[in-house]
Design a protein that fits this description.
With about 120 residues, this protein is α+β, with helices and mostly antiparallel strands. It folds into 2 domains: about 5-60, no CATH class; about 70-120, no CATH class. About 50% of the residues lie in helices and about 15% in strands. The strands form 2 sheets. The chain has a two-stranded antiparallel sheet. Helix 1 crosses helix 2.
Amino acid sequence: MEKVRTYTDYANKTALTIPDHFIDVKTGNSVKVSQKIQEQVDYHSNNNTLIHLVLSALNSYLHPKNMNSDIILAEINEIKRMMQSGYAAVQTPAYKEKVFHGSKQDEVDLKEVEDVLEAFGG
């Protein structure tokens, strides 16, 4: 039998019943309620801020902060496309000089670069 706990914030007339598991509304999967969630709900119910915890969680869920990951992934994808098509930018004199005087250790294996790009979602 599943154990449920009810937390109450009497000052703000808020009560929240926490089961052992919940259904993740994004994936539909059953997820165990973590100890950290239980601790936070308990803390906020004791400090009359339970409704603020719930609304903060809903706000984060409904309005996630985009860390410009789409832009970064698009740039990485563009770099990958350029590498696969054999794109080589016009080299500036300073860069050409370095290429002519550089050692073998300065060279980058394109396979390694592709592997790194693949590992980071490219």
